[in-house]
Design a protein that fits this description.
Its EC number is 2.8.3.-. It is an enzyme of class 2 (transferase). This is CoA transferase. It is elongated, with a radius of gyration of 25 Å. It starts with about 25 loop residues before the first strand and ends in a 7-residue tail after the last strand. With about 400 residues, it is of the alpha/beta class. Helix 1 crosses helix 7 and helix 7 packs across helix 8. A hairpin with a 2-residue loop joins strand 3 and strand 4.
Length: about 400
């Protein structure tokens, strides 16, 4: 039996639990691990693609070990970025494992990997080799740096990109989430979608390259552009904004809240709502540029007033006046307070599991569709290998040799 034709699913269904969505019928061979690549392929799965996640048969994706906490023996970190996929446990260094990987790539519309430079070529999974068997493939590589063989991890990228330099107050602070991985995953997904569209409209297969460093630098947007325009190093403003005032946190009598008065009209509305219309007519604060230059005068005035009432009182008052305002919440509090922020899947070992929705919806992808839970290590190995044309005896032999692994579990 030959490998499936690219763009078709042997089962006729997407592992995201639906045949609907703009990427229905698109097959993705995912050799990535940790966050940037898995996040990108999870987004593709959300759009209906069939994603086959390939992991090492012993330790699997590195993020499986990044706990506690765990649910049903699975690390929360891993669970966050791997729903909607089928899992294959495969040793790509084993000769028979490489043959499985070769067939999988030959039938894929998209191949995505984040091996260190040179590793994919040694394994026969580099773009040139894959494209010989599959000329129309979209091949995506995610690296830490462009033109640099060093491994890239979010923390070091945050340091070297300047992101930590502008975050915090008295010292550099790392944002609380691996934001450069998330940005890289989004960039990879967007570029892959562009390449798939080009191919669907008569173009050829394409190479997509994403680096964590360049994703971080592009994610600095206005801060980076301001540094280029001014020729001076960016400064650290903590919870304030370098070029918009007032746009920051304030301490109420019982906690913290944020005001985002992004233009002159909102500033005047703010001043009227808090009973300080005089600030709104003060020539020192007439325009945003004036307020930026005189923030050291304005902010203490506002801070002294905001300390006299509770955060709930201020947020209610300002929200009613139409001023952008928000009380600072905890993560769990925010998830519980936001309608539709989470959904549930049935996991084979964790049972009913809450997961966080992506930040977009499409009419062609029903919100209530069934989505496959993040796979156990090797949960679908035999299923996928059978679809690729391997006989049961061959699969058993490969399992005995350690080239592949099928998960053994009892559902809850």
């Amino acid at each position: 039996m030959t490998a499936p034709t690219a763009g078709t699913s042997p089962t006729g269904a997407s592992p995201s639990g639906t045949t609907t969505g703009p990427l229905a019928g698109v097959r993705v061979a995912d050799f990535s691990r940790v966050l940037a690549g898995p996040y990108a392929t999870m987004l593709l799965a959300e759009l209906g693609a069939e994603v086959i996640k390939v992991e090492h048969p012993v330790h699997g994706d590195d993020s499986r070990a990044w706990g506690p906490p765990h649910a049903g023996g699975e690390a929360a970190y891993y669970l966050s970025a791997n729903r909607g996929k089928r899992g294959v446990a495969l040793d790509v260094k084993h000769p028979e494992g490489r043959e499985v990987a070769r067939r999988l790539c030959a039938g894929a519309d998209v191949v995505i990997e984040n091996f260190r430079p040179g590793v994919a070529a040694r394994l026969g999974l580099d773009e040139e080799t894959v494209r010989r068997a599959n000329p129309s493939v979209v091949y995506c590589s995610i690296r830490g740096y462009t033109g640099d063989d060093r491994p890239g991890f979010d923390a070091t990228i945050q340091a070297e990109s300047g992101l930590m330099h502008i975050t915090g107050e008295d010292k550099p602070i790392k944002p609380g989430v691996a934001i450069t991985d998330v940005l890289s995953g989004l960039n990879a997904a967007v570029a892959i979608l562009g390449a798939l569209y080009r191919r669907a409209t008569g173009g050829e297969g394409e190479r997509v390259e994403v680096s964590l460093m360049n994703s971080a630098l592009s994610g600095l947007v206005n801060v980076a552009q301001s540094a280029l325009v001014s020729g001076t190093e960016a400064a650290r403003y903590g919870n304030a904004h370098p070029t918009v005032v007032p746009y920051q946190t304030f301490a109420a009598s019982d906690g913290w809240f944020v005001i985002a008065a992004g233009n002159d009209r909102l500033f005047r509305t703010l001043c009227e709502a808090i009973g300080r219309a005089d600030l709104g007519t003060d020539a020192r604060f007439a325009t945003n540029g004036d307020r930026v230059r005189n923030r050291d005068v304005l902010i203490p005035e506002l801070s002294a007033l905001f300390a006299t009432r509770t955060a709930a009182e201020w947020t209610s008052l300002l929200d009613g006046a139409g001023v952008p305002v928000g009380r600072i919440r905890g993560v769990l509090e925010a998830l519980r307070a936001t309608e539709g922020a989470t959904f549930q899947v049935e996991h084979p070992t964790a049972g009913t599991l809450d997961l966080v929705r992506t930040g977009f919806t499409l009419d062609s992808v029903p919100a209530d569709r069934e989505i496959a839970a993040p796979p156990l290590l090797g949960q679908h190995t035999r299923e996928v290998l059978t679809e690729l044309g391997f006989a049961p005896s061959d699969i058993s032999r490969m399992e005995e040799a350690g080239a592949v692994r099928q998960a053994a579990y009892r559902s809850t």
